[in-house]
Input
Amino acid sequence: MSAQLDTRPASNLHKPQNQGDGVSPLRILAAVMMLLVFALVPFFAAGTFDWLAAIVFVILFIAAAVLSRVVVAFRNPDLLRERAHYAVKQDAKTWDLWLMPLVGLVGPLLTLVIAGLDHRFGWSARFAPEVQIAALVVIGLGFVLASWAMVVNRFFSAVVRIQTERDHQVISDGPYRFVRHPSYTGGLISYLAMPFALGSWWAFIPALLTVFALLLRTYLEDRTLQNELPGYEAYAARVRSRLLPGVW
Output
């Protein structure tokens, strides 16, 4: 969740909360399995592992996912607990229970599946290698931006909710100095670059649908934060762009 000016004393910043509510081995296993699904889906759809662009994409994805969680585990271990138990948060916004999986799971997986089928059956004309390389660089930058946001923001929940039990406050440092939802900015540019990187015009269909869901989630989340999170309205007046500086 992209909510964000934590004014508590530094000694309290990394204090774990809900000590008994840890991340179980079963949840860790589920996270590993999800990584494997994302890693293997494009190759299963393509019917081959001989696909260099997909290999690079998977390496970037896994590296960003693992490294960001390792850093968060040392910096904000209570955030891992928050994200691990998102499904039982009764104060999560109802609309986000639909949008969150569309943006973070269904949309990206469909993009990978369509790109894989396109690679197998040759629906799209070949993309220039330079285009694919540039797109992979953009995806890498998107992953870095989203990971930076997670590391900086200790309230980076998987679902949109006001975390009152965690003393939810506004975060305005790191990438939040430039846009209000930098993780979504990273997702936006990554989703748009994926069809180019994987060489599939058909993959733009699920990619654009995912971007639409992301834009809707950004709008609804930002409205929620302005209405319910103290200090966010003043922050929004200072940092005026939600996703793209000078655009929106």
Summary: The radius of gyration is 18 Å. The first helix runs from residue 10 to 13. The chain has nine helices and no strands.
